[in-house]
DNA sequence: GGAAATATATGAT
DNA sequence: ATCATATATTTCC
């Protein structure tokens, strides 16, 4: 089995995010009933199925890209931004260009 | 079992 | 804007 139960939950949530949209760590934490978005980052950074799990659709609550592959900034982060751009999500001045790209988990 | 580390968030300075 | 604290989970020793 891969990772712990918590990680599986985080990755599953990632896979339910539609393309062209992004979700904040806080939103996912709330959806998973987790009181700390930090745990989300920990699970995402150790994701065993990087291409299968759209972990690049997770951003910070300030609409900033956040980080990627264990680095808050670097070539990997740029790759994440490029991937998002390919899905229609564009960042401007370190923040999400269009707020409508923000997605949230179904609360019902 | 305990300490260190982390892709954050929030409050204070 | 920057620093310090809080919180949850993982990984290393």
What's this entry about, in short?
This protein has 108 residues and is mainly α.
Task: Describe the 3D structure.
The protein is mostly helical and about 110 residues long. The chain has a single domain, classed as Orthogonal Bundle (Arc Repressor Mutant, subunit A), CATH 1.10.10.10. The chain has four helices and four strands. The protein has helices at about 5-15, 25-30, 35-45, 75-85, and strands at about 25, 60, 90, 95. The protein has a two-stranded parallel ribbon. The chain has a two-stranded antiparallel ribbon with strand order 3-4. The chain is globular, with a radius of gyration of 13 Å. The mean pLDDT is about 95. The protein binds a DNA duplex (13 and 13 nucleotides) through helix 2, helix 3 and strand 2.
Name the descriptors.
single chain, 108 residues, mainly alpha, Arc Repressor Mutant, subunit A, two-stranded parallel sheet, 4 helices, DNA-binding
Low-confidence stretches: none
Task: Write down how many β-strands occur, each being a DSSP E stretch of 2 or more residues.
Answer: 4
What is the CATH homology-level superfamily?
Answer: Winged helix-like DNA-binding domain superfamily/Winged helix DNA-binding domain
Percent of residues in beta strands? 5-15%
The CATH architecture assignment turns out to be Orthogonal Bundle
SSE class: mainly alpha
Q: Roughly how many Å apart are the termini?
A: 30 Å
Counted up, domains total 1
Shape: globular
Spatial strand arrangement across the major sheet: 1-2
Portion of residues within helices = 25-40%
């Amino acid at each position: 089995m891969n990772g712990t139960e918590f990680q599986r939950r985080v990755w599953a949530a990632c896979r339910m995010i539609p393309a062209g949209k992004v979700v904040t760590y806080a939103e996912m934490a709330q959806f998973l009933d987790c009181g700390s978005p930090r745990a989300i980052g920990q699970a995402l950074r150790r994701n065993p199925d990087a291409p299968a799990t759209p972990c690049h659709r997770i951003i910070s609550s300030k609409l900033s890209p956040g980080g990627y592959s264990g680095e808050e900034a670097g070539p990997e982060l740029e790759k994440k931004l490029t991937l998002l751009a390919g899905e229609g999500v564009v960042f401007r001045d370190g923040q999400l260009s269009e707020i409508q790209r923000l997605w949230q988990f179904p609360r019902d």
